[in-house]
Design a protein that fits this description.
The chain is of the alpha+beta class and 193 residues long. The chain has five helices and eight strands. The chain is globular and about 45 Å long.
């Protein structure tokens, strides 16, 4: 049975910050819309801002379903699984917001990520918690973490901001989602920081 927590601190915060990956889940309001589930990785791309707020970097490279869904309705769930050590699963159900490069809060938020920031950062997804739970992960298999994949950072590291904006403009399901919802603003706002 899940344990509900009032806030993220202590053991929960340490667990979240120690995981090399997490998952995001979102959905449109439409009953026949596409549910989106995405794995997220890259060290340093998720931060716990305070006891009720987390944020992660949204990078280019795939569609923009999460952005479209949080723009439409804000609903988002983040999940972390322990693949080593004690079995545990943590879920944060919350209200998500996509903060884009031209937002006045961009500079303050992007600074939270230090060296994890990269040229393909297109938004910061801020999540304000509504419900925080953890439950045993007895059925989650043990898996060995071998290290970070560097291909994404290397590929986009070779692109200028202008080249990245062109890449986004040409890619399908970036400006609108699979269900036709507004997603990433195009043309992609230039980085102010």
């Amino acid at each position: 049975m899940a344990t509900t927590h009032e806030h993220i601190d202590g053991r929960l915060r340490a667990f979240i910050e120690a995981q090399p990956m997490f998952f995001t889940a979102t959905a449109p309001l439409s009953g026949d819309g596409h549910v989106n589930l995405s794995p997220k990785g890259r060290v340093g791309t998720l931060v716990v801002i305070d006891e009720h707020t987390l944020a992660y970097l949204d990078f280019g490279g795939s569609g923009a379903e999460t952005i479209a869904h949080v723009r439409e309705n804000g609903r988002i769930t983040l999940m972390w699984c322990s693949f080593s050590g004690a079995p545990n699963i943590v879920r944060v159900h919350g209200e998500g917001e996509a903060v884009f490069r031209d937002d006045p809060r961009w500079g303050e938020l992007i600074a939270l990520f230090g060296d994890a920031d990269g040229p393909s950062a297109r938004a910061v997804i801020v999540v304000r918690t509504r419900r925080i739970t953890d439950v045993c992960g007895y059925a989650v298999p043990f898996m060995e973490y071998q290290g970070e994949r560097t291909l994404h950072a290397e590929y986009f590291g070779r692109k200028s901001d202008e080249e990245f904006a062109e890449y986004c403009a040409k890619k399908e399901f970036i400006g609108t989602s699979l269900d036709g919802l507004p997603a990433l603003p195009l043309p992609l706002p230039a980085r102010t920081v």
